[in-house]
Amino acid sequence: MRYTLVGYLVSETHKSIWRNRMSSFLSCGTTALALFLLGVAIVISLNLQYIFTDVQSQPEIQAYLKMETTDQEAVSALKACEAMNGVAEVRFVSKEEAFSELREMFQDKAAVLEGIENPLPASIRLTTFRAEDVPGVVEQLKVLPCVEDVIYQEEASRNLAVLGRVSQALSLGGTVIVGLVAITVIGNTTRMTIEARRHEIAIMKLVGATDGFVVGPFVLAGIVLGMFGGLLGAGLSIGLYNYLTTSLGSILPFIPILSLTRDTALNITGILVLTGVAVGTLGSALSLRRHLKV
Amino acid sequence: MTALIQVRDVSKAYPGGMLALNRVSLDIRKGEFVFIVGQSGAGKSTLIKLLYREEVPTEGRVIVAGKDLTRMRRLEVPFLRRRIGVVFQDFRLLADRTVAENVEFALRVTGFNGRDAKKAVAQVLSMVGLRSRHSAYPGELSGGEQQRVAIARSLVRNPDILIADEPTGNLDPDTSMEIFRLIERANRYGTTVVVATHARHIVDAMRKRVIELRRGTVVRDVRRGAYDD
């Protein structure tokens, strides 16, 4: 009896998807698009976390010196830094040392740096005793004549956070809008199937089929469409991300970009598939509630 | 003995205020064969629909096999309908399924497994004389044959009650008589039968209990009656 029920559900679900294959394809595609955007939001979030960690590992304040700075000017700047209130440590990083650090960082992509003339400026790296000392030290550094630019964690973090929030909001907003469209399209596919099978459904109810038995194939069809949409969305977002990281990694090796591990990719796929299932269930359930008075 | 079907002071008004039934009361005992007669609009179909809970009364109670249909929860309705076979004038068969599949449908959607279902289908098709046509599609059958398939579908679960709403409305007199002989045969096996019909010659020939409705009210209820007084 159980086998018959499962067989019936599978067979009717297959029929329901196949009968409205254009609409089913559209449902699946829209869900995939929504979940692709969700996938993008997830990888942006993961990258932000990665970049934050990277920023945290950098020195607290970096003062980049102008390219034309002489050794004497650098030494007097270093002394000025040591004299500043709140400064705990000061270290001079020469152009050669900075380039050497870069080589070390990208030792697996050494070819990229080959033949390139050192583009990096010398810098002074400082740490403060307390976080509150950072703004005052930064202000004093900015007025030193040989200092080109000052980068410090708080600013970098703040800028990254703004950038991250904007891009996440855009992706999540897109996910919600396209997700609602996906729910509507799946609902419409369900409605078309209900219309095509209205006569059959009436007979089913007449001969004593339970509501669960009547609606089962419709809900299952919604779940299947959502699930395939999730798989497609995951494939697209992960595939595109891997393509972009490979391309960007060779063009812009200085930007820290997270490489997706197998586990992370599987987790993202899991999240998108489950969301797809939820979208499919919701779409079909709402349509059943509206168009099938069972 | 308690009646299998009890209708108590039932009224049914449709939206717009049209009163289809007005304080109807009747009892039908197990094993009875009952004709419901009356002009179009007299309330026959409404009464029939109340019996398998397609409709619920505005007032009064309908009790079938001990279950009060007016208080029945929606979840219980399918289980009531498994005890009732229903036949309509327009047959209501699935055009894309064979005779056997149409009959088997009533079993499959209520969870019967394949082997038992096929055995029951073969038996009921033999009973209605359609065993040799089990692979035909409804479009390949005559009206009488299609109605026999519908009867087979309604009987395949061996129901307590067979309800028919104008089962011969689309058929010629000879074929109609064949259909009623079939329904009578089911009645002889113990199934209680309630038929709403305009088929005067059949009602007159069969001499069963006749309940006449006029403008939603029972005006006649006779044990071995004719179509008219």
Characteristic terms for this protein:
heterodimer; A: 294 residues; alpha+beta; Alpha-Beta Plaits; 2 domains; four-stranded antiparallel sheet; 10 helices; elongated; B: 229 residues; Rossmann fold; six-stranded mixed sheet; 10 strands
Give a structural overview.
The complex is a heterodimer of chains A (294) and B (229). Chain A has 294 residues and is an alpha+beta fold. In chain A, 73% of the residues lie in helices and 8% in strands. Chain A has 2 domains: 2-55 and 158-291, no CATH class; 59-152, Alpha-Beta Plaits (2-Layer Sandwich). Chain A is elongated. In chain B, the strands form 2 sheets. In chain B, strands 6-7-8-3-9-10 form a 6-stranded mixed β-sheet, sandwiched between helices. In chain B, strands 2-1-4-5 form a 4-stranded antiparallel β-sheet, with helices on one face. Chain B is of the alpha/beta class and 229 residues long. The model of chain B has no long low-confidence stretch (mean pLDDT 94). At the A-B interface, helix 1 and helix 8 of A face helix 2 and helix 3 of B.
Rounded to the nearest angstrom, the distance between the terminal CA atoms of chain B is 29 Å
Q: Count the beta strands of chain A.
A: 4
Helix content of chain B: 25-40%
Derived structural class of chain A: alpha+beta
The biggest sheet of chain A, with number of strands, parallel, antiparallel or mixed sense and barrel status, is: 4 strands, antiparallel
Oligomerization status of the protein chains:
heterodimer
- CA radius of gyration of chain A is 29 Å
CATH class of chain B: Alpha Beta
Portion of residues in beta strands of chain A equals 5-15%
> How many distinct beta strands of chain B?
10
Secondary-structure element sequence of chain A? HHEHEHHEHEHHHH
Q: Which two protein chains have the largest interface (Cβ within 8 Å of the partner's Cβ), and how many residues from each?
A: A-B, 18 and 22 residues
Mean pLDDT figure of chain A = 84
Let me know the average pLDDT of chain B. Answer: 94
Globally, the shape of chain B reads globular
Order of helices and strands of chain B: EEEHEEHEHHHEHEHEE
Poorly predicted regions of chain B: none
N-C termini distance of chain A: 23 Å
CATH architecture title of chain B: 3-Layer(aba) Sandwich
